[in-house]
Structures are given as C-alpha cells and as structure tokens.
Amino acid sequence: LLTCLYQVLHYDTLQVVASELSIFLRLMSDIYAFFVALVSILFESALRTFGAQNGLALTPPMGWISWLQFGCQTDCSKGLKNCFSEQAILDIAEHLVADGYRDAGYIYVNLDDCWSSRRRDQDGRLMADPIRFPHGIKWLGEELHKRGLKLGMYTNIGSKTCMGYPGSGEDIEKDAETFASWEVDMLKVDGCFTDKSTFSTKYPKMAKALNLTGRKILMSCSWPYYTYPEKPPYPLIAQHCNMWRNYQDVQMNWNSVLKIIDFYEANQDLLANFHKRGQWNDADMLVIGSPKLTNDQAQAQMAIWSILGVPLFMSNDLRTLSPALQDILLNEQLIAINKDPLQPMGKVVKKASFAIKILHMKEVDIRSPFIVLVLFNRDEVARKMIEIKMDLFSNYNQQMYLIHDVLNKNTLGYLTQNDKYGRSKFEFHVPPTGVVVLKVYPMDVDLNAPVAYSVMWIIFCLFLAISVLKLVWRITSNNFLTDAVLPAAIALLHARISALRCFPTGEAIRSILDNLINSFQQICKMSTVAETNILQRQQSIIQRRQLLVVFFHFIPDK
C-alpha cells in the first residue's frame, strides 16, 4: 500500500483536482504523511550535507538573469527601462508573474554584475548604484517577494568583479551579512581577478559565511569554469556550492549553445557523478529569445537543458518575447522532466549518424516510471530520420513500451518486438538543429502469457475501461486535467488494462479500446485549471495527489 501511495502521491505530472475527499482518502493521506515524516527524520542529517549545506536547490533552480539582456548597460539616458536599473528589473518581474513564468517555476530574479556603486559606503559595505537603484536592494527584494519571486545577487571572490566593481575578496563575511540583511535568496559568486589556487579556501569561506547569517541563500559558483581545462575538485565544489558553472559563458548564438552541448557530452560521466539534489552542474543561461536562434534551436536548447537536469535561467527580454518562444519556455512536460529530483543527468547513449544524437535519461525510481529520450539533429541543413526500436531499451527487460511525443503532446502507441501487439519501430524526422522529445513508459506485461478470449472476459475488459472513463468524467465535471497529465494518465490506464490481460489481439477489440482512450483524452483536454497564486497551487497539488489514491483504489491490480 505504501509503495503504491509512494508512487501515486509523488507523481507531480499527474495533476487532478478534487472538490471532496473521502474518509478513506484522509486515512491514506495520514498514513502517507507519517511515512514521509519518518523518512525525513531518518535522513535529515544526510540531506543537510547537500550542496552548500543549506538544504536548498533540491530541484534545479529556475529564474531569470540580467546579464545577456542588460549586461553592464549603465547609461540610462534613454530611460530607466532601457538600462540595467530597478525599473527594468520590476518590468521583467511583472512579466514573470503575468505571463505564467513564476507559476511554471521561474522564481529567481538575478541581478548580475554592474548592479553596485563603484565604491563601498563609509562603513565599507556594498551599496547599489544610487541612480539606477534609488530605492536600494532591500526595497527591490521586498517588491519581488510581494510578487512571489526571489531575489538573486552577484559578487566576485576576487578584489573586484569582472567588470571592475567592488568584489568580496577581502570582505567575505561583511558582504555575506549585507546580502542577508537585504533578504537575498541567491548569490552568484564569480571568480575574476584572483588566483585560482585560492578558490579552495575562498569559496568554502563564502559558503560558511552565508550559512552563519542564519538566512538560507542559494550559492552559485563559477569555480570549475576558472579551473578549466584542469580537472576541477568537484567533491569539494559540490560540498560548498548549490550549482556551478563548468564551461564558457553562453553567447546569444547557436554556435555557443552547441559548444556547451558538446562539452557536456565529452565530460558526461565525470559531471554525472556530482549531479544530484542540492548540487547541480550549470550549463549557463537559456538564450531563447535571441534573434540569432531559430525556433527549432530554441526548442533544442530547452529540451537538452531539461534532460541534462541543469538550472533553467533565462536571459532575455520577456517584454517582447513571441508567443511561440513563450510556449517553449513554459512547456510543462519539459519542466517536469528537468525538475524531477530523482532523475539522473541525461547522457548521450547513441549516435545514429554523424548528426543525430540520442540523449537518454533512465528511470531510477517508482516515482519516475518513464524513460526520456531527446533525438537531437546537429545538421544545420538536412532533416534526419531516426528509427526507435526495442534494442535501445534492452537494459529494461520489458516486452512493450508506450511512446509519447512530448512536444506535440501526442501518444503514439506501443513499441514491441513485432507488429502483432504494437509496432516494431517508430520513425521520427528531426528538423535541422532541432529535437524530438519522447517519454517512454515500460509496460509490465508478459505478451507470451496465455490470453483469455472468452466473450465474458472481453465484456469485463470493456466494462473496466468504461468504468474508468466514467470515474474520470466525474472527476473532470468540476475540475479538469492539465495537458501535462495526459501522457502519464493514458500510459497508466494502458498499463492497467494490459496488466489485466485486456490487451486484445483482435483488431476490433483494440479499436474499441483505442476509441475509449481517445475519448478519455478529449475529456481531459476540455479545460485547464487556473491557479492564481502559489498557495493555491500548493493546495491543489496536494488535492490532486490525494485523489489519485481513490482513483486507483477502483482499478483492480494484476
């Protein structure tokens, strides 16, 4: 029972809203809450050792960074909205909220280099530029917090920042106290103008100083980047940083993005060893919105960053972003893949040709019952065809897999050894510098087992499917499932029917079941839930998870 609950209640992509909860439901919730509390207590000390020892960034952080949009643009003669200023930052914050980015997970608003005055105040403390940030950083943070966002700041481990502003090199403790007093939530610590041999003392010193302030501040380090091409001391870095830049700064062009992708492929085994809850490799910013990227390239960066499990920080002008690019950045399923804390870092597992790479994220836990594939075409001119066959999943020892197209939100069917029960291969045409993203659900079905073909058994199978649809109709009559639910819900429904040996060989029966599934899908697509604030979102997620206990209570096991 606990195993079932553990799977159902943690599966965030299954989002169902309920208006009432039964006594059975509340009892099961209490059992689950006790179980989670017990696990949390037993492993609390271990969790505290995660990156920077602050308990933060248990999933890859998300947000927006000023650097590529505003850089060090301190000339505000054309207006404060057109330079690096508090007014421009508040404009971005408004769009993060109004356009749905905050609710999708983009909650950090990070001020990069050039935010400060050229000098410290009379007490030797950092202070914001008085012209561009007239209300000060604490006030700006309060404004962001009112909007449900978090404030991120920038400093440097050397005597001055990369752009020549005051650094924290000799004032680490004092600056940590200043950032905490401003109620900063995240701090990027750069590595300019200092000897890299001092990193092993200065970065840990900053992490300790931040923790001693009593405020939890997520720490982003540039440590590995400045040691490259020498091998960085990742065990030490992971102990003191929540996330770390590995490679060159991303630029607003495709060639720069491609170099980062190649770096992660070349070093994937090393990087994966230190990539986990509270400590993440950082592939640098999403440049989606740059005119130098096509929409396919923007989609490719979003998909590959998601399967790599790296932080998702945009650096663009949200005020002018096209609807198509907004949809890419707000793709619920890609974000869910990225934020799954139990999924390992995606790796390149196959090269189908000189141009096609398959990035693969394997399942590791019952809470993530799927495999993710990104089919990536490096070719800048030609569309490439790739076949997906059973041999790609030989490690999973299953006879059937349900294939779902993430970007087109379309369930494609079953992959099997032959065409008797499904399809022996799926062909995908990947656009130049583009991707196809698949979720693959292993089906726990023995296709060699004898199948009951009696009329009564077929009627029972159809009755079961209709009963499930009827229950779903009751659920969706008041509140509706979001698009992110569909692939997982359909996959689980398929799996349940298959496990009951209701997977028919007859084309007529299969057609009936497929029609039922399609009806289920259309019901789920009728509407979506509007969640206006973070508290309501948290409450609805709890209700959605709890309802699934009742939902699966009515579906017999194998």
UniProtKB/TrEMBL annotation:
Keyword Transferase applies: no
Pfam families per UniProt: Melibiase_2 (PF16499)
SUPFAM superfamilies, sorted: (Trans)glycosidases
InterPro entries: Aldolase_TIM, GH, Glyco_hydro_27, Glyco_hydro_27/36_CS, Glyco_hydro_b
Any GO BP annotation: oligosaccharide metabolic process
EC number(s) from the headed UniProt entry: 3.2.1.-
This protein's UniProt keywords: Disulfide bond, Glycosidase, Hydrolase, Membrane, Transmembrane, Transmembrane helix
CDD domains, alphabetized: GH27
GO molecular function, one term: alpha-galactosidase activity
Bilayer-crossing regions: 23-43, 451-473
GO CC annotations, alphabetized: cytoplasm
Coiled-coil annotated spans: none
Self-association and partners: Homodimer.
Family, per entry: Belongs to the glycosyl hydrolase 27 family.
Protein known as: Alpha-galactosidase
